[in-house]
Design brief:
By secondary structure, this protein is an alpha/beta fold. The protein folds into 2 domains: 144 residues, Rossmann fold; 94 residues, Orthogonal Bundle (Transcription Termination Factor Rho, Rna-binding Domain, Chain A, Domain 1). 43% of the residues lie in helices and 10% in strands. The protein contains 8 helices and 6 strands. Helix 2 crosses helix 3 and helix 4 packs parallel to helix 6. Bound molecules: magnesium ion. The site of magnesium ion has 7 residues, from loops.
Length: 266
Amino acid sequence: MLGPALHSAADSRKVTRVTLFDEAPVRAILLDIEGTTTPVDFVTKTLFPYASRKLEAFLRENVKNAEVRALMQEFRAQRELDEQSGRKPPSWHDDSEEERLRSSAEYGQWLIARDSKCTPLKTLQGKIWQQGYASGELKGEVYPDVPVAFERWKRQGKRICIYSSGSALAQQLLFGSVATGDLTPHIAAFFDTQVGAKSEAQSYRKIAAAVSLETSHFLFLSDAKKEIEAARAAGVQTLLCERDVHSAAAGSTTQVIHDFNDIFPE
Ligand SMILES: [Mg+2]
């Protein structure tokens, strides 16, 4: 059900605001990052090339670390799956530690170039970005309306949650290092692919359960129609975020927004 619609010029200001969703049940706002809170370019032109560039050195420095070794094993298994499904990943050599390390780095770079969402890659990228943020080489980026909206929603008692295919660690680092200051105190929870794929309805049910809410208490914003459809199938209210006004979703059956200013304005 939609909120108050436009009536006539004689109506008071209170009813001239058209709402794109039913505001009453919303207690939490769930946000995608890439293309929603953050320009796609930051991810594709800053974060991905950084991880790709640093991957081999990172593996080399951490080759004794049990978790990193386990991630390399997961890479190997994942690579076999890729090969079985007809893709052409780089070859894998396992005869020495040096070969395994190089194979892991090459395969990881291949995954990054394909914008793979596989969990071991996302975990490794998160660790590499952590070093970049810690050294100040990387700084998180958000659209200008985002810090203002976070302040406003928090003041209104809404819980702000993030759901991105980037690891929860990477998400925290991004929001913790934006130019206007640390945004993480505004954020109640971070979710990544550990709860499942963003294109599956079940993931949204798990997220709701994790913060002890019903799916109907959530408003989800994303620039990806598949994610919007999955969230909706789980009973979540949704808005498609179109940051690039020129690419407006013509004929879209879903409600579209271009920034956060119209969501729970004051
Ligand atoms: Mg997105």
